[in-house]
């Protein structure tokens, strides 16, 4: 009986060590591949002029392979150094920052996914005639990427 238990015990121990090292499923492996392709790709959306002639909104987001606190600290430092903007609100615990330049405002938020990947989102008022690559919001995302040494580009 003990002769049969030893191989079974050895197989169980081997499985317990090997299983955590294997990908959970092919779907998870595909998700990781897609996520890696999305890193540094800036997605931008502009909502046109509102009723009553109010400006629309401009949104930009990017996944970065960096801790959320580091991204937030970098964005806050850039805002503090920029004499053209005023910091209206900062909430380090929520990683949220609101700035103003003239009569335009923008809100920045950093979302923590895990210790290595975070998402930077910036929303603000769209300027007249701003396109996907000329947007002040997209330019702000690019400045954060550059300051952190990350390669970012505007997606299609």
Structure explained in plain terms:
The chain is of the alpha+beta class. The protein has one domain (25-154): START domain (Alpha-D-Glucose-1,6-Bisphosphate, Chain A, domain 4), CATH 3.30.530. The chain is 37% helix and 29% strand. It contains four helices and seven strands. It has helices spanning 2-18, 26-38, 68-81, 136-148; strands at 41-46, 57-64, 86-91, 96-101, 104-112, 118-125, 153-154. It is globular, with a radius of gyration of 22 Å. Residues 8-21 have low confidence and may be disordered.
List the helices and strands and how they pair.
Blueprint: H1 2-18, H2 26-38, E1 41-46, E2 57-64, H3 68-81, E3 86-91, E4 96-101, E5 104-112, E6 118-125, H4 136-148, E7 153-154
Parallel strand pairs: 1-7
Antiparallel strand pairs: 1-2, 2-6, 3-4, 4-5, 5-6
Helix pairs in contact: 3-4
Which features characterize this protein?
4 helices; 7 strands; Alpha-D-Glucose-1,6-Bisphosphate, Chain A, domain 4; seven-stranded mixed β-sheet; 156 residues; 29% strand; alpha+beta
Return the CATH class: Alpha Beta
CATH superfamily: START domain
Shape: globular
- SSE sequence, one letter per element: HHEEHEEEEHE
Strand coverage percent: 25-35%
Over the alpha carbons, how many angstroms does the gyration radius reach? 22 Å
The class by helix and strand makeup works out as alpha+beta
Q: Level of helix content?
A: 25-40%
Cα distance, first to last residue? 65 Å
Largest sheet: 7 strands, mixed
What's the total count of β strands?
7
The count of helical stretches stands at: 4
Find the CATH topology.
Alpha-D-Glucose-1,6-Bisphosphate, Chain A, domain 4
Q: For the residues shown, what is the average pLDDT?
A: 77
Number of domains: 1
Q: Please name the CATH architecture.
A: 2-Layer Sandwich
Poorly predicted parts: 8-21
Order of the strands making up the biggest sheet: 3-4-5-6-2-1-7
């Amino acid at each position: 009986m003990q002769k049969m238990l030893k191989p079974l015990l050895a197989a169980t121990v081997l499985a317990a060590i090997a299983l955590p090292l294997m990908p959970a499923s092919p779907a998870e492996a595909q998700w990781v591949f897609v996520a890696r392709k999305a890193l540094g790709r800036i997605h931008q959306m502009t909502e046109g002029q509102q009723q009553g002639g109010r400006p629309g909104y401009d949104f930009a987001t990017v996944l970065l392979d960096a801790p959320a606190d580091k991204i937030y600290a970098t964005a806050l430092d850039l805002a503090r150094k920029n004499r053209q903007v005023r910091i209206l609100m900062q909430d380090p615990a929520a990683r949220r920052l609101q700035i103003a330049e003239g009569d335009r405002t923008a809100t920045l938020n950093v979302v923590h996914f895990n210790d290595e990947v975070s998402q930077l989102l910036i929303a603000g008022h769209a300027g007249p005639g701003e396109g996907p690559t000329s947007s002040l919001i997209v330019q702000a995302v690019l400045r954060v990427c550059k300051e952190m040494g990350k390669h970012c580009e505007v997606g299609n």
